[in-house]
Sequence to fold (271 residues):
Amino acid sequence: MILDAFLIRAALAGVGVAVAAAPMGCFVVWRRMAYFGDATAHAAILGVALALALSWSVFFGALVVALLMAVAVSGLGNRGLAMDTLLGVLAHSALAFGLVAASFLTGARLDLMAYLFGDILAVGWGDVAVIWGGALAVLALIGWRWSPLLLSTLNGDLAQAAGIDPRREQLVLTLSLALVVAVAIKVVGVLLIGALLVIPAATARPFARTPEGMAILATAIGAFAALAGLAAAFRFDTPTGPTIVCVAAGCFALATVVNALGRAVGGGSET
Fold:
């Protein structure tokens, strides 16, 4: 019974992260924001260190710092700085400062490894509630602003002509991204959050006919990767967070092959 509850908690946590990350990951892919997601995730480790030092909730600390990083990147990017350079500086600096800050905390090293690479097997019912609460908040934000977000993603000028402020929609994405980072940190860790954002969405993209279909398919792929990765990690005694990402990467590789074969067959039939 204990083992059953333990697996149920881990499975619910993994699916909850997939539900939070999939729709956000679609916008990350469409806007080519993968490095933006990495920068926000890397900053979260500084939030973890501050939370441990000040006896705050780790979720709250990661959320606050991830949100500050996302807002800072958006603000500095609008001032004409080269985005790739800016993201590189901020992402690695935030990670380094977070690791240095955590090194001063007594007994924090083992916990820090869990936050870097995830520890889904250690989640409790409270963690599951936080993960699903964050996932539902992300879905609510994205669902509320879906059409304006999509239009501003496709064409900023057209969005402005329709009375939509692209900067406001960017802020919605920023908040959603910070929520996803805070939600996912316990499951896959800050070093792998970017992969869980991008890979399911990239896997779904060739097979989706509509943006909504892509978001739904990405959610299904992410949930499958979480459950299959959890099962594989339990069976082979491998690190769970990296195993989940490996399963997602395998899905992407398979989808790439299937898509290439489909194009080859389609091209051959036309000739």
